[in-house]
């Protein structure tokens, strides 16, 4: 990818913009003119948390960074100067945005999230999802765009620092820093590594697990109390089971007998209820028949009275016959005698009929009374049988009660023994588990080297030496890159970290430029641009190799070769921030910008004066 411009915009403010040439952009001028602010702003747009506030930025609201992606499309990243999310516009925007962005991304890298500017740019470079080795235990972390920027955006502090160009000032991050370097040189991440465990953390967790198991064992021993050993408990359990079986068998026999008695009592009670119903029914019918017998007796008495009255009525009554209703003129002389005889015959016939009915009724009542008496006898017998069976059932239950109490006691004892056996088994299991946990050891990561092959080391070391030789750096014929520990440049048997400021800065610049060229020539992953802050320190006396302060300064010829190389030979994009006036740069795809540092004189700095 290639940087197009860095532009600050705000309402009613003229855009403060620095365009970047395709090959080389040189920005030089006085200190405090805003050159270092440019590299800070680039870091901020590419995911740094904050951008330092300077007075010249007052009134400006948004920073814009134009980028030509590796895929060939052009985008603009926009971010508020106070921080927050990064807005992405799918065109080259150089003024205050007036439309919604095409996408909004989180500024900081979040593992597993695709909604970040880091993932967006890494995806364009083909590095999304790459994994880095982050410690000696081969634990992994996801690659973020900030990991790459350490090798592309080199500020003045880092270019002069007494540490490897590869690593940061955070000791815990240095393994990951070296993994990034390996990823760029060989195009392979560390996702195939098998991780180990942190011994300190493992011991802390293991100690906590053992303490928890000890507390659990103490609670089990407290619940167990004074109990025999498991073999004795098993013998006791066998005896209990035998006793329970014998007692259960006697109780079962008694229960069978009890069920039989209950069935017999049910039959007797049913017979008693049935015969009692017979008695009640017989009494009801007998009572009704007694009333009927009384009615028959009353009827016979009335008939006798009718007979007597009818004999005398015909003799003392003159007029219409009271018996047949005949008027006197139709009555013959023997009429009264005849009619009285008829009445008597009728009464006799009715008396005979009623007497016969009463005789049958008397026989029926006698039979019913006999049935009632027999039913009463059966009721008495059934009641006695029910009482006998009830007494026998009660006696049987009384006899079984001691066995029931005994089996309850045996079952409770067996439950206690089984509980003790269970607790003993748990003690054995937890004791075995405690011994196993106490004997565990952390998984040790497979021993690995930095992962960079010896051929790659030789090729990259040669590439750095060739760049420094083309720059005319003194002693570069005896230059190589040491991969023993953190990679660093060794010049004339002296490591870069042991050299003066001037030599440290130019060797750091050569390392970073050679890395970019090495990756781009071999189509290995690399952002494609490099930003260097104060890579070349010059002094006037070219014969003097070391300043009075001990800083090694370089001749103007090194600076000229440095810029000539970036102007004509380097295949990537380079942006150089310098205090000193650079040699003339006039090549195609190159530009030079001067910050005067004085308001009203040319361009005073990044922001208009």
Care to give the gist of this entry?
51% of the residues lie in helices and 13% in strands.
Note the topology.
Layout: E1 2-10, E2 13-19, E3 24-29, H1 35-45, E4 62-68, E5 74-80, E6 86-89, E7 103-105, H2 117-125, E8 131-133, E9 140-142, H3 145-149, E10 153-154, H4 156-160, H5 174-186, H6 199-224, H7 230-316, H8 335-438, H9 454-471, E11 479-482, E12 488-491, E13 494-495, H10 501-521, E14 529-533, H11 556-568, E15 573-578, E16 590-595
Helix pairs in contact: 6-8, 7-8, 9-10
Coiled coil: 365-399
Organism: Terrabacter terrae
Keywords: ATP-binding, Coiled coil, Nucleotide-binding
Output the keywords.
P-loop_NTPase, coiled coil, nucleotide-binding, alpha/beta, 11 helices, 13% strand, 609 residues, Rossmann fold, ATP-binding protein
Q: Please give the domain count.
A: 2
- Rounded to an integer in angstroms, the radius of gyration calculated over CA atoms is 62 Å
Enumerate the strands of the largest sheet in spatial order, edge to edge or round the barrel. 2-1-4-5-6-7
Overall pLDDT:
87
- For the record, what is the CATH homologous superfamily label of the largest domain? P-loop containing nucleotide triphosphate hydrolases
SSE sequence, one letter per element: EEEHEEEEHEEHEHHHHHHEEEHEHEE
Distance between the termini: 32 Å
Q: Helical residue percent? A: 40-55%
| Count of separate DSSP helical elements | 11
CATH architecture title of the largest domain: 3-Layer(aba) Sandwich
Question: Which class do the helix and strand fractions yield?
Answer: alpha/beta
CATH topology title of the largest domain = Rossmann fold
What is the CATH class name of the largest domain? Alpha Beta
Q: What does the overall shape look like?
A: elongated
Low-confidence stretches: 539-550
The number of E-state strands comes to 16
The main sheet comes to: 6 strands, antiparallel
Per DSSP, what share of the residues sits in E-state strands of 2 or more residues? 5-15%
